[in-house]
Inverse folding.
């Protein structure tokens, strides 16, 4: 199959998704109804139980939703600082063609995602800035590249399921499902995971390369953006415009670099202490990443006024996250309260064998992710069933072999959960506040470009989780 045929096929899928896929919010509403109906028909739950689960679930991801909001705006603030803008400008001097933009964005994004999935915001910022500077970039396709690049987070330091399994006294240990923690050498440090990293860093850019649209006519950022939404002046210039025409104590404090720098250096001191005291892999979480971004942004912007302006600009397009996350939390509440999540996983577990258990785990992770697009939340629902399946299959095996099987099954859930995000627009809400600023873009404009990558990665990942040793 030549490049031209693949590109045409990709365009057909894109057209189909554009025609039939609703907005991310409507997608959440439809999933809410579908999950509710399934809970009523496939379980013995009464309607009031489903409704209570939905209502109670609404508030279970509030802290997670706020973490996502903060990681977006703190990362965006860093990108608006003068040093980072200058660095991006220098990088742009070496990137001359749209193809280079796509490949740099997806390869660098895959590497950044290994640090934390929140780093996709940095990738999104880089992608948008390059699209402004390089002519001929097909912008919706570039957004798809950014979204695809973050898929590798599941192999890195913020891999929720791997870190959970290595956390002392986690819920699986408390419930007697596991006897002890599962070291990251079996998960993140395994041969399977290292090959999976190579898949995202090396193979994913090659997949994107053969799918690059032949024309960007009408699809460049300059064609789509509303100029009134663009900031024509820098943060520094806007900060100066707020100064009074005479000397004032308020201006002196608002622009007191010493004040913000002292506070940020205190925060950076704690960050250094935190990682010296704690193991880097197991202690890296959203809170410390957000705190690091916050302190770095303060230091880079120097004055309180500049940082306040950067925060205001960064916060201007996060409405989708604020009101859609609770709906997904409600879906998760229905799955938990009705037992629907457990029922789905148990149904798949009944057909598991020593040969296909990894594939069953992978498939379960991908399917359930459409209703619970949060790796930690999903594993809380299906994790016990998956691990019990492994233990039953490994009855006559050594403890070390069972541990290896548990690691393979758990990471398979993680890989399946992550890959299905390509067709699940939930986490596009992290990308759109940055890349969608000033333009009209929806999930349907992006997801079609990801269908062929999804199919190719699905086949490759199934082969890896089934046959590559831990």
């Amino acid at each position: 199959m030549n490049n031209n045929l693949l590109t045409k096929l990709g365009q057909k899928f894109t057209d189909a998704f554009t025609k039939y896929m609703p907005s991310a919010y409507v997608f959440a509403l439809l999933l809410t109804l579908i999950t509710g109906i399934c809970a009523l028909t496939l379980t013995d739950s009464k309607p009031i139980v489903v409704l209570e689960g939905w209502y109670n679930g609404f508030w279970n991801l509030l802290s997670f939703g706020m973490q996502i909001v903060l990681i977006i705006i703190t990362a965006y603030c860093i990108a608006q600082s003068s040093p980072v803008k200058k660095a991006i400008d220098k990088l742009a001097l070496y990137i001359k063609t749209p193809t280079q933009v796509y490949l740099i964005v997806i390869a660098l994004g895959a590497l950044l995602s290994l640090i934390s999935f929140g780093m996709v915001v940095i990738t999104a910022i880089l992608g948008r800035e390059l699209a402004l500077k390089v002519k001929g970039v097909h912008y919706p396709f570039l957004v798809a590249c950014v979204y695809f690049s973050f898929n590798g987070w599941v192999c890195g330091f913020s891999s929720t399921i791997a870190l959970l399994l290595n956390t002392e006294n986690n819920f699986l240990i408390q419930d007697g499902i596991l006897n002890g923690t599962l070291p990251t050498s079996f998960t993140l440090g395994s041969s399977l995971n290292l090959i999976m990293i190579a898949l995202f860093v090396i193979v994913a850019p090659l997949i994107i390369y053969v799918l690059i649209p032949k024309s960007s006519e009408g699809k460049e950022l300059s064609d789509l953006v509303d100029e009134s939404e663009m900031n024509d002046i820098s943060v520094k210039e806007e900060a100066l415009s707020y100064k009074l025409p005479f000397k004032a104590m308020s201006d002196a404090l608002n622009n007191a670099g010493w004040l913000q720098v002292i506070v940020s250096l205190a925060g950076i001191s704690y960050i250094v202490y935190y990682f010296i005291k704690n193991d880097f892999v197991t202690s890296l979480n959203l809170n410390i990443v957000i705190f690091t971004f916050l302190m770095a942004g303060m230091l880079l912007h120097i004055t309180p006024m500049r940082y306040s302006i950067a925060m205001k600009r960064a916060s201007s397009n996060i409405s989708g996250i604020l009101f859609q996350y609770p709906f997904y939390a409600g879906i998760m509440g229905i799955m938990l309260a009705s037992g629907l999540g457990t029922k789905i996983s148990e149904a798949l577990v009944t057909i598991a064998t020593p040969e296909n258990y990894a594939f069953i785990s992978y498939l379960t992770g991908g399917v359930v992710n459409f209703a619970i697009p949060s790796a930690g939340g999903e594993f809380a629902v299906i994790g016990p069933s998956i691990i019990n399946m492994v233990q039953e299959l490994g009855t006559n095996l050594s403890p070390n072999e069972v541990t290896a099987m548990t690691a393979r099954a758990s990471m398979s859930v993680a890989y399946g959960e992550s890959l299905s995000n390509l067709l699940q627009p939930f986490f596009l809400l992290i990308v759109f506040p940055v890349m969608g600023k000033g333009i009209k873009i929806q999930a349907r404009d992006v997801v079609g470009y990801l269908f062929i990558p999804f199919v190719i990665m699905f086949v490759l990942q199934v082969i890896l989780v089934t046959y590559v040793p831990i």
In short: The mean pLDDT is 86.
